[in-house]
Amino acid sequence: MPQLQGSEPDYRFTLANERTFLAWVRTALAILAGAMVMQQLARHEPHWVVLVMTSSLAVLAALLSVGAYRQWQLYQQAMRDAGPLPPSKLVPLLAVCSTFLGLAGLAVITFS
Amino acid sequence: MRDPGLQQERTRLAWARTSGVAAVNAALMLRSGAVSDSGTLLTAGVLCTLLALVMLATGSLRARQLALTQPVAASSGLLAMITGCVVAAAGCVGLALLQGAFVFA
Fold first, then answer.
1. What is the predicted pLDDT for the residue at A8?
2. Looking at beta carbons, which residues of chain B come within 8 Å of A56?
3. Rounded-to-integer distance, Cα B18 and Cα A82, Å
4. Across all residues in chain A, what is the average pLDDT?
5. For chain A, which end, N or C, has fewer CB atoms within 10 Å of the first or last residue's CB respectively?
6. Which residue in A36, A47, A61 is closest to B29 by CB distance?
7. How many C-beta neighbours within 10 Å does residue B66 have?
8. Smallest Cα–Cα separation from B86: which of A111, A109, A107, A22?
9. A52-63 residue pLDDT tens
10. What ipTM, to 2 d.p.?
């Protein structure tokens, strides 16, 4: 565990950081729920398409939760250092992945 | 700069909402495990339920920590555990995918 430097930030910011982490965790869990429902309801042939979509969603959920923890650590340290918060990498990740998966889903429906 | 406890309440609610979504996921997995003949799916469902309980317990621990006169910040270990729970839940979905199709009854 790296040595914590700097001073303890205002606890309201610490709690806000925690809530942000939890918001990302909820996002990941919601995506995971989508993966479960997709697997339960999808009757699409060829079946590998369903497998690829579902596992992509599961991987995205895992990536978001790990990224959320790292972001929490990063922001907590940035607040200690009284420096600017670095821009979130999770937002572009989610935007790119959900756009891609949405278009892929559309393609699956169109070409089946 | 007095805060009348709104931050604590919002944080408690954030934990409650997170536990709620985890419970819904557990219910989904448990259902698919219950309606299928697969032991693997049932195991995945039970595991997801345990993970949801862990998240619920963590949430109530945090609620108690926040209710103190001097509210305590979340430790990194606690949040790492939550991340671990979500990754494990994703692993459960992967396990079910390997097992085969979910059964829709």
1. 82
2. none
3. 29
4. 92
5. N
6. A36
7. 21
8. A22
9. 999 999 999 999
10. 0.91
